[in-house]
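Batch 3, record 17
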Amino acid sequence: MIKVYASSVIDAPADSVWARIRDFNGLPAWTPFVAESRIEGGQPSDKIGCVRNFRLKDGGMIREQLLTLSDYDYQCSYSILESPMGVDNYVATLKLTPVTDGNRTFAEWWAEFDCAPDREGQLSRDIGQGVFQAAFDSLKTLVRR
Amino acid sequence: MIRVTRSAIIDAPIERVWAVLRDFNSHTAWHPVVAGSAIENDEPSDQVGCVRNFTLKDGNHIREQLLALSDSDYVSTYCILDATLPMQRYVATVQLKRVTDGDRTFWHWQSTFDTPRGREQEFADLVGKGVYEGGFEGLRAFLRRRPGAPPVGNAVRPAGGETMTTQGMVASRFGGPDVLDARPLEARAPGPGEVRIRHGAIGVNYIDVYVRKGEYRLIEPPAPIGMEAAGVVLDVGDGVAHLLPGDRVAYACAPPGAYVGVRTLPANQVVVLPDEVDEETAAALMLKGMTAEYLLHRTHRLRSGETVLVHAAAGGVGLLLCQWAKALGARVIGTVSTDAKARAARAAGCDAVIVGRDYRFAASVHDATSGRGADVIYDGLGQAAARENLDALAMCGHWVCYGQASGPVDRLAVDSLHQKSATFSSPVLFHYTADRAMLSEIAQRTFEALRQGTIRLDVQHRYPLAAAAQAHRDLESRTTIGPLILLP
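Prediction for the assembled complex:
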């Protein structure tokens, strides 16, 4: 089992950051790498168990299932059902915590998964930098008022 | 129940922040509202269950117990046992998280507690603003003052480090300057209560000559000599609360062993340097400056208007005694061996200077004091000046013999003191600094005197560590003025 962890500071209150990211179907609106997304079966995007089916800008298709959504803890967990990444047992969590000093947001995103041993380094970089940090950078730009 | 939560981003790696916060007694160094703090029963400050007993600057008194500490999760949980404030069931958790974006630290501080009805807001503000927000600012300021290198890798306290090799100047046997040999030595990783320091500068003192000659039996040759040095902390052992890797520090203490590049020694004798004191100044200042401090404030509490006789007034301690005694309002008479030293002594504040190499000065002291004599004599000469010192002393005077450049005062008839109701003291710096609180007090007053310009140090004599023998020859030839230092 590998764990990848990334964290950042977003210069906006946690409420407003959460409003941007809580929509499980909203990846195209705030990440730089998702082209389009839909929730399977026409379910609400905040119904636990719903599945988002999205297409990356590089063409890959991914299906992810919502496991946890907490408006109280600003936290969201999900698992990968299908992807071209070659990972198993992939569970990720995105969590926000208010930074009272300066009214900003501490954002954390981590994932645990299994993969072929020779791909651990590359996948860790791809997910940690290419997905999590890239999404944080995009979020930082979006909240700049 | 009241819940208080505050959080902040600290612009330092998590290892650096945690190295400070995991130490349950460190708040006395960085929190602006903490006046003083100690761990009870001498327990290590990272032992779960230990109790910190501290006083706030507003006079309140609190005892808190460490309930949980995790180096893997960067979490510390503690509760209040007793407080002079009406707070009950107070449990607080400090949690750090790594901000991978920029290698910074997220610090989350939360507590729950009860307080008398109607005072909830008052105490929520006291804790949230006064303690937590004040703490964030305090730690930021502390880290700016002591930026210190973060510990290597993920080890929070890299006490398991390797033994290092270093060069040292060793007294191969007792004897003249030539017995000093350059040899490779080992500086082992610090054990409990110890610190390992990379020396930047080492002080040379007359006591080093006594040790080298075997007049003070403080070593068994072959062994390195030297009592004081300044440098940077490399690593610390368990239970060391007041030092961190990267701290600029200095010390002056027994046993000898300072003439080395890297040294491991007890941390309780080591003090952190203020920003404005560089390592060369510190190496020259610690032993001599702290000696002047205790001689003028402790062995004898010098009062304005007293007449002071300072022997070797152009020596390392002598110059500091003259400057400081003058600033305290004393009338200062110095003895020196040459005219060049007389000029240095006058520049240091001597009202009168007696020049000579024959230890005859009592008549001149009486001339300079209308026959009254000196109220206090600071004597580093010892045996050869003993009879003259008794003669030079005023009624009820105080003869303070802190050195023995001419040999120890081996016989002093008590009735010779009786004739003048005189007092004789034979003080040793290391007895005054054995207690850490006292050491800290003495060191701080010495740094303060330097900062205010009460005392000045002009380091003119620098030698490579390997040239320690030459430094000793120069010191013993009595031709140097002011402090000598060695540079590793």
